[in-house]
Structures are given as C-alpha cells and as structure tokens.
Amino acid sequence: MLQRIYDWIDDRVDVTPLWRDVADHEVPEHVNPGHHFSAFVYCFGGLTFFTVVIQILSGMFLTMYYVPDIVNAHASVEYLQSDVAFGMIVRGMHHWGASVVIVMVFLHTLRVFFTGSYKKPREINWVVGVLLFFIILGLGFTGYLLPWDMKAYFATQVGLEIAETVPVVGDLLSNLLAGGEFIGAQTLTRFFAIHVFFLPGALLGLIAIHFIMIRRQGISGPL
Amino acid sequence: MHRGKGMRFVTDSRIKEREHRMENIPKDYSEYPGKTEAFFPNYLLKEWVVGAVFLIGFLCLTVAHPAPLEREADPMDSSYIPLPDWFFLFLYQLLKYQFAAGDYVVIGTVVLPGLAFGALMLAPWLDKGPERNLSKRPIATSMMILAVMSVVYLTWESADQHDWEADAEQAAMGEEDILEVEEDIEGYEIYQAQGCISCHGDNMEGNPGVRGPDLYELPYDAEGVAEISVDGIGEMPPDMFDGSEEELQILSEYVADGGGVNEELEYLDEDEVDADDASDLGEEDDEDDAEEEAQ
After folding, report:
1. What values do phi and psi take at A149, rounded to 5?
2. In chain A, whose CA is at the least distance from the CA of B111?
3. What's the complex ipTM?
4. Domain map of chain B by residue range?
5. Is A26's CB within 8 Å of B70's CB?
6. What CATH number does the domain located at A42-217 have?
7. Which CATH superfamily is domain B186-294 in?
8. What stretches pass through the bilayer (chain A) (predicted)?
C-alpha cells in the first residue's frame, strides 16, 4: 500500500532523485568516529545544525507567549518563565542553546580551518560559513534585548554605542537598528522582527546553500 | 543523464554531468580505500543515538540552570553596569584598552575586528597553497592560534574584571515595593537639589547599583538623619549635604518621615500584618522593622 502511494507520487513528480540526493551517499572512514575516535571533530557541523533546529523549534514556541512591546515584554517573559507549563524549560533551551550554537560554530570553524578544508574547490562554502557565523552572532545580539530586562537594555545600549563609532555611517547604522535616537518601543519591535524573520530567513537560505555545496563537492579527503 | 524513472520534464534544467571536471575536485567517497559506510540508514542511526545523548545532557543543563531574568529595563538607571552576552565580551574588553578607546575607538570597533574577521572570510585566498596539513602551513596555523588565544584571553580578562557581586545585586528582581513619596513639598525639593536622588532613588527606594539603601522606615529620628547627611555613614561619604541649617532641618524631618509614607505603613501594619505575614515572605523584613518600631 505504502509502496503504491509512493509510486503514484513518484510517477507524477519524480521524487526518487531528490530522495537519493539527500540520503544516498557514503560516509568515508576518515570522518567516521566509529572507526577513528579522533574523527569526532567532524561532528561539530552536524551538532551546530542540530542546535539550530532546537533554536528554531523552541523559538517558535516562545513566540506563542512573548509580546514584543515595551509594556508587556518583560511581564510576558516572566509569565512564560514562572507560570506556563514547561515554559522554563523551553526558554532555558533557547537561552542556553544560543550559547551552545556559538560554541559549536566556533569548534566547527576551527576544525575546517585546521584541516585546511576551505581550500580549492571549497572557497565559496567557507565564505558562506563565515556569513552564517555572522548571522548567528546577529541573532545572539538581537535576541539578547527581547526579554527587556536591565541586562538586555544596557547591553544593547553598549552595542549601539559601538555601532555609532563606525566612521561615516555610524549614526545611520545605529538609528537604523534602534529605529530612532534612543532604545525604546521601536527598537524592541525592530529587534524582534530582525531576530524572528530577517535573520532566520537568511540563516535558512545560507544553510541550504551550505549543504547543497557539501553534497556537490563532498567532504574533503583525509589529510 | 537519466535518474529515477527517467522522466523528462518540459523544461529540464537539471545540470548535466560535465565532461571536463575541475582538476581539484575530490574523488567520490566510494573511491577512498577504507571502511566507508552508507549514510542512510546505518550512519544516521548512530548519529541519532549521539544526538539523543547530547539532547539529554542539554536538557539537564536547562533544568539545572534556569534562564536568568533581571528586573524590567529602567532606562533612567544610569548606574547600571552593563555586561554583553559572553560571546561579545572579547570585543567589549578590547574597547577598554587605551589604544582602542577614546580618540582611537575606531581601532577597537572597526579596524581590529574588521581585520580579524576580514582575514577569516578571505582565508582561502590568503592561504592559497595546496598543503592542507596544519604543520605544513605554519603562517595560517600560527595566525589562527594567535587569534583564538587573544579571544580567549580578552574574554577571560573581561569576566575577571567584572564586579559579579554588584552585578547580582543590581540584577535582582526588585523584591521591595517602590512607594510613592510626597513630592510637592519643600522637603522633596531639597532632597532633589542635594543630589540624594542619585543614591537613594527618586522615591527613596534606594539604588542597588551603588548600594544606596532605601530610606523608608529608617531607625533614626530627624536629628540622626541630619547628622548622617553631614557626617556620612558606612559607604556614604561625609559632607553630602551642602546647604543652610534651615534646609537641613526640613530635609531631615522629611527623610525621617520616609517622605510621608511611614505613617501610612504603620497604619497598615496594625490591621494587616498578621494576614500578610504568611502570604508574602518578601515583605517580612519590612514588617518586622515596622513592628519593632511600633513597640
């Protein structure tokens, strides 16, 4: 029965090649920790992706309760943290996940660097990876403001002051991020939009490119 | 190239296999000698097991350490010592050094990070040689080790220099209530003009950032308050008051009176202290003080 449903779909949209592209490849010995334990360094990329998935899922649940305006933001986080069932765990996952993603990206970057895997023909994928790193840092920065507590407010103020020191475009950049001269209602909604729509969109697009290129080019060979 | 069932689409844009491949494109995995393993399902299943263990560890962390939440943002509290998220600490610390602060702040905010991250992004073109082994490309390796060591050092220094005790104090979710003091009388004007506000708050609620205590329910009478505002006490330096005797008199009476909120508290105290005692642990201290004073 399942086979017939699959065939019916496959006859019309030819999904077999897509499926084979995703699943049908072999894992070479030198990256398989089952054969050489030291190959665990090749896991950091996958763990980064795994944590990113955790971030997306926990973030989706957080937006069910979070209210992005300066009057209710803090109270909604407090409510989520103290009253909602499993709210503490979901927020905890998102909070600590942010740190775990950074650590994993850092380790993954070091692995790729020290195995020289960014060399021809994988230059573009390295650049995409560095862009992904910047996007993840941006997600960390914008997400930090959202609980609207003291730490969030003043850390963002420091961040915007740093942006202001950029020659020529500094003030423009800071105004663009804050939505005005001061950190206030505009800043919070803006950071929320950036954190929830703009950056995750860019993140998913670049991750797709990152993965397609890995499948095209394969994992770099043994040293 | 026919894949799957070999269907042909009206506009088949799928890339055909090229005759001349780029020289350096690696061989297919299957061409490596050794024990290759199918990704699906063999390897994926093992990955799932590792992923599950990772997830359990991660969940334990979230249960053991709930995500912190400080009191609601108060933009007027200029005494708050800011602290960025830990992964920005190295940048934050960099700006504390003289060569990257003040007039040279552009070096700290744009030049050095720009060079470091620019070099990171352009690594494939800065390190073009064919060698991949890290011992055979000493410049790239040493630059990266240097960069990692600097980031670790700066982060460490930043955490080391931060006053974590003050941080915990200023972060606390305001347990005590802020009471509305009377503001339309002379006492408050002097309170404001003498700068008491900066440490004791504009409603006498205190300022944890500079360890200024609240001034409700002080154990001093007007004379005692006057003495303290001239001589100082504890961390409060002497000679904070700078005005006429008459002003001092008005101010100290006003402060000893808790800005007009104390009487009200005592009144509440008689009726409700028993009922409140059990329900609200946070206010217990205040009420105890009030009781002592009533006796």
Report:
1. -105, 180
2. A166
3. 0.91
4. 86-171, 186-294
5. no
6. 1.20.810.10
7. Cytochrome c-like domain (1.10.760.10)
8. 39-67, 96-114, 126-146, 192-214
